[in-house]
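SUBJECT: A protein chain and its fold
Encoding: whole-number codes for local backbone shapes
RECORD BEGINS BELOW THIS LINE
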Amino acid sequence: MRAFLPILFILSMCDAHAQGAWTLEQCVVRAEDKNLSIRAAAYDRDFAAEGERGAKWGFLPDLNAAATHGYNWGQTIDRYTNQFATDRVRTNNFYLGSNWTLFGGLSQQNQFKRSEIDRLSAEEALAAARVDVLSAVVARFMEMLSAEERIRAATINADRTREQITLTEALVEAGRTARVELLDIRSQLAREEYDIITAENQYQQAKLRMAQLLQLSPQESQSFSISAPELQAFEPQAPTTTVEQVMVRVLETHPAYKRTKLNVESAERSVEIARAGGIPS
């Protein structure tokens, strides 16, 4: 067993490094499976579904049963004959009871409707969590792509500036140009190197935020990189709707707004349940 554990560790490391560059689709699939916000919303949905099931069972009557068995020694009054008895007396008692609310101010009906609304609200909350997380994944993916391009462009500019410095140094040594021009080019190289470092920091920050969204392990984070989609896959088209139409569509279909409406309905049901307490049952 001890010899088997290092093999598992080596295999897991090889699998992490064999992942290669991640596409946007792979990042989305990983986020849907591992992101903590989505998983927490899924647990809330399951909890709300159990609450609805419990409210449905609340319409049925309850049933309680009890039994006692006892002995008595010594002189005592037999409660069945009302006479003194010195023999051992055995007693058995059985109880069976049931309660069934027939009206109750429609409290149970409102509780069931509220639990149903809460379940629908939890489902919309799960959908909203997916939208938020996947939007964040796309944003971090674009940030990493943008930072990579800035690093590449800044590196090319710095390489060209170094070549220009080499040429200018030769001209200065030959006395064909002023030394101040060489100093200007060196200051330009310093700015370009600063731009490279800034872009690298931005890339690492975006990578860290992406790793948090995807819940990557430390081994996966070290080898994590992304693959840019091919430009041929994009087909830009002119927008066919106005901003107002887009906003109306968002308000009608976005899960977060649907959840808000359902929460309002749930609160209204809670008011009805509280009012039922003042109605005779």
Notes: The chain has eight helices and four strands. Strands lie at 62-72, 76-78, 83-85, 89-99. The first helix runs from residue 4 to 17. The CA atoms of residues 147 and 202 lie 6 Å apart.
